[in-house]
Design goal:
ATP binding, seven-stranded mixed β-sheet, nucleotide-binding, 29% helix, 14 strands, globular, 12 helices, alpha+beta, 60s Ribosomal Protein L30, Chain: A
């Protein structure tokens, strides 16, 4: 577990969660990126749950400072995309049914915030329909649970199904086959985005918030952090939300609250052209660049040509408490989606991504390692880290 995450009571690798779920019946699809259910027909059925996490706290801080609830529209996008873009890793890019679960402290989160969240859900679904991605909203639950929640939690659940013949199981990846890793960038401005995206996504926000934002927020909004934490350890950065960063032409708030980029439009086109050639897809959410260590057996993932660190991650790295090793295992660091293919197919993926104004490049390859464990080797600018998982 990352030391800095542990100090905040958070785990990027979720070791305790993975240990707890061992009591449950395993997925019908084995070592796939998402759990799947076999109902005895030609499909795998998926029901996936995720959410915007503590990113909603930053929206809350911005709302309290400005009075503008619009920032919560992006939180709805985060909540959906954290589901759909996990599900695309097994081959799904269409026909989603989405429900939401919102837990709020009604004394701090009024109706106008709920309206902004609902508007964000609908706007995202409408936008995706323009790219042939059908996402239907199907109600949800909004609970006033002020005794449990200081501000607001925005979670979603998504359902879809996929033909078993189209299902992509990352755990089946063969390290003996020549395979390269093509990464799609999380930052910049995709053709279907309305503004520059910092690339931060929805992971690592407990660290990002406390490494970037100043003690001003601890003093003014004590409800924005757990009372189990020592106040001296929170909000140790130097920035306020309205501070303008000329390097990227955005405020700190805009950088932190950039909606998590969806890759659905891109991957729909990739699947149209290359579906049978895709050996694995990894969504670098919790676990960051080390996420792939969980898939396959006897696989070494060598990532020796990663993207230059986008501005927001460099800003986080400047914090006094975080090492490069932790940075790479908490954050996507600019490459949130990885596709594993034979080298002759890499350029096709890069060209498709470029057509959506998204950077893409080969960031590495896989090779065999000793049986009984997997490794992720990250190399960048003379530094290297190895992440190992034993089975």
């Amino acid at each position: 577990m990352s030391d800095i995450y542990k100090s905040y009571g958070v785990s990027a690798a979720k070791e305790e969660v993975h240990a707890a779920i061992k009591v449950m019946k395993p997925s019908a699809a084995g070592n796939a990126f998402c759990q799947a259910v076999d109902m005895g027909d030609e499909y795998f059925h998926l029901l996936h749950a995720d959410g915007a996490g503590t990113k909603a706290i930053i929206a809350y801080l911005d709302y309290k400072e400005t009075g503008n609830p619009k920032v919560f529209e992006g939180i709805a996008v985060d909540s959906i995309v954290m589901n759909t873009d996990d599900m695309l890793c097994v081959g799904l890019v269409d026909q989603f049914v989405v429900s939401n679960t919102i837990g709020r402290n009604a004394k701090r989160i009024p109706q106008e915030v709920l309206t902004a969240i609902m508007r964000g859900y609908q706007q995202f679904c409408d936008e995706m329909s323009q790219y042939g991605v059908n996402i239907q909203l199907c109600g949800g639950e909004t609970a006033d649970v002020g005794d449990l929640v200081n501000t607001v939690i925005v979670d979603s659940t998504a359902y879809s199904k996929i033909k078993k013949s189209d299902f992509i199981e990352a755990g089946r990846i063969d390290p003996k086959k020549e395979t390269v890793i093509v990464a799609l960038a999380s930052d910049g401005q995709a053709s279907y985005e309305s503004a520059y995206n910092s690339g931060l996504g929805s992971n690592g926000f407990t660290v990002a918030r406390h490494e970037i934002l100043s003690k001003y927020y601890a003093d003014k909004y004590p409800e924005s952090f757990s009372d189990s934490l020592d106040k001296a350890t929170v909000y140790n950065g130097q920035y306020k939300l309205d501070q303008f960063m000329p390097q990227v032409g955005r405020t700190i708030s805009e950088l932190l609250l950039s909606p998590t980029r969806t890759f659905l439009p891109v991957m729909k086109k990739v699947f149209d052209e290359l579906r049978p050639e895709i050996r694995a897809i990894i969504h670098n959410t919790g676990g960051g660049l080390s996420k792939s260590v969980n898939f396959g057996r006897g696989v070494r993932y060598v990532k020796d040509n990663i993207f230059e660190l986008p501005f927001i991650f460099d800003l986080i790295r400047q914090g006094k408490d975080i090492s490069d090793r932790e940075l790479w295992t908490i954050f996507n660091c600019g490459q949130r989606l990885e596709l594993y293919v034979a080298s002759q197919h890499a350029q096709t993926i890069i060209d498709i991504a470029t057509s959506f104004n998204i950077k893409a490049q080969v960031i590495g390859f896989i090779e065999p390692c000793e049986e009984g464990h997997n490794e992720v080797l990250v190399k960048h600018k003379g530094k290297s880290e190895i992440y190992t998982k034993y089975f």
